[in-house]
Amino acid sequence: MVAAHPFDVDTAVEAIGESRYTASVSDRWSLVGGHANGGYALAICLQALRAESAYPDPVAVSANYLRRVEPGPAELTVEPIRQGRRLWVGQTSLIQDGREKVRVVANFADLAAASGRTEVRNAPPVLPPPEECVEVYDGRRPTPLTLADRLEFRIPERPGWTRGEPGGRLEEAFWMRFAPDDHGRIREPDTLALAVLVDMSAPPVLDLGEFGSTTIELTSHVRGVPAPGWMSCRASTRHVIDGYHDEDFEIWDASGRLVAQSRQLALLPQPKTDQGD
Amino acid sequence: MVAAHPFDVDTAVEAIGESRYTASVSDRWSLVGGHANGGYALAICLQALRAESAYPDPVAVSANYLRRVEPGPAELTVEPIRQGRRLWVGQTSLIQDGREKVRVVANFADLAAASGRTEVRNAPPVLPPPEECVEVYDGRRPTPLTLADRLEFRIPERPGWTRGEPGGRLEEAFWMRFAPDDHGRIREPDTLALAVLVDMSAPPVLDLGEFGSTTIELTSHVRGVPAPGWMSCRASTRHVIDGYHDEDFEIWDASGRLVAQSRQLALLPQPKTDQGD
After folding, report:
1. What is the DSSP string of B66-82?
2. Which residues contact A251 (CB under 8 A, 6 or more apart)?
């Protein structure tokens, strides 16, 4: 039997009773600073929540990032808040060394059972096929950025920041999928993955010459069960104001349907940051 | 001494010790169904949070609407989560008759003290001055909609739904301010008001012929301390999918700066709804 894909292995939680869970934060989803990517940490939280939820799909997820999540052991406590006919609502906290790192409130539903009106005033990005695009990361990335080994990003033209020439582009469109694992297998997206993939690509503010960004709050809305295959994405930052910035993200599945959207509020790097105490 | 403005009177909370508060939900901010507008209920929550916060401005607010808020007494419990150098994070629940109605996690900061880069790739809506626009609500609204008496909306042309002819416009731009109180005074916006004004106007889906919308989750990001005067706004819904829809909202202050943005996920009315159990 072949081992599970890294995304499933590294986000697994173990129930230890009374709505408590343990998890092991892997170093395979780290950012340049060596701490865990926020989307990866959120996936662990959603695994704990989904273990208690009556429904499979995290349709509305709000994550508040309190402190950096580091590779190593973590504990999670889940509070079920409400069971409704169409929505289950719950909250969890990811704790390391007795300190709360992430707090998440999430609404779960069964999207396959959703029915009602559909009216979309938007379209997926127009992109050449993935095989005619280039990889965003070209192998010259800094070593601690293991996150870049877990995903593939294909873009028509590499943004300026990747060659040290930030061009001020704050809107990018590209293809994304999980990278093949050691056995060459692609893991297809599911709704839990969608809720966190919105926070796993390079932030557009890098093309302003910034070297990073610290998420304060991220909201993901998962809008559909994704078809297998490459996802097309739009990432954009429209308002950088006094060091705070937004970032919007859309994911369209291989069949051309919008399946996830997110917005986050984040801080540009400052000499002294609020994070890490 | 003249009494305070209805927004301040009706959102006031009273501390009863141990991070607990009481409030009285007024019937002056009700929707057609007679229950309280979600933005108004959120304002009460933010008053309780701000009473405990070290900083004045709710920069990132996520509200989960669990059940309808009804006029009458309410209790709130506040949990301070984290005090940082730039952000205070806290959570509150609004409870009526022992049942949790709204759960809010909010990040507060001091926006007047914020400094850092500014780069905006967006512009306020282009609108004729308020005095050349018409009121969205023209007096023929249903009686229970007291919310419409608390605010003024000025729009170049009334949307089709206001005359029973929905035109499928899912993006509107208009002016907004608090309505004059009984003494003719205008209450100017502040950052707490901005965080909830994003949810106090008619939803764009009314122009699809829908008669309402039930918010599941609302995230507000307050991006600046507003100048006094009319605010210009954009409300848009881009994705109605299987009965779920998003709604984005922008508020620009009288000096032309983006001061708030929000997104919510909501449900169109269905014969049997998830709300109200």
Report:
1. -S---SEEEEEEEEEEE
2. A176, A189, A194, A197, A198, A226, A231, A232, A233, A258, A259, A260, A261
Helix (H, G, I), strand (E, B) or coil at A169: coil
Beta bridge partners of B134: B155
The pair of three-digit structure tokens given for residue B206, joined into one six-digit string: 């009314």
At A52 the three-state DSSP class reads: helix
- Cβ-Cβ contacts under 8 Å, A238 against chain B: 120-122
Q: Which residue in B51, B36, B53 sits closest to B101, CA to CA?
A: B36
A chain contacts of residue B258, beta-carbon cutoff 8 Å:
239, 241
CA dihedral sign, ordered B262, B265, B271, B273: negative
**E-assigned strand segments in chain B:** 13-17, 20-25, 57-65, 72-83, 88-96, 99-109, 119-120, 134-135, 151-155, 171-178, 214-222, 231-236, 239-241, 244-252, 258-267
Report the residue from B120, B240, B272 with minimal CB separation from A240.
B120
pLDDT tens-digit profile of B199-229?
Answer: 999 999 999 999 889 999 999 999 999 999 9
Q: State pLDDT tens for residues A97-142.
A: 999 999 999 999 999 999 999 999 999 999 999 999 999 987 666 6
pLDDT at position A273 is: 46
At residue A29, what are phi and psi to the nearest 5 degrees? -130, 40
Chain A CB contacts of B116 under 8 Å are 242-244, 267-268, 270
Give me the residue from B100, B170, B263 closest to A263, CB to CB. B263
Distance CA B154, CA B165 (A): 19
The dihedral built from the CA positions of residue B224, A215, B92 and B212, taken in this order, carries a sign that is: positive
CB-neighbour burial class of residue B194 (10 A; exposed 0-12, middle 13-18, buried 19+)? buried
Q: Which two tokens stand for residue A162?
A: 């990747």
- Report the distance separating Cα B155 and Cα B157, nearest Å: 5
List the one residue out of A190, A138, A139, A148 whose CA is nearest residue A11: A190
Give the ipTM: 0.95
* Dist. CA B218–CA B252, nearest whole Å: 19
* Residue B24: both structure tokens together: 């009285």
Distance of CA A207 to the CA centre of its chain: 20
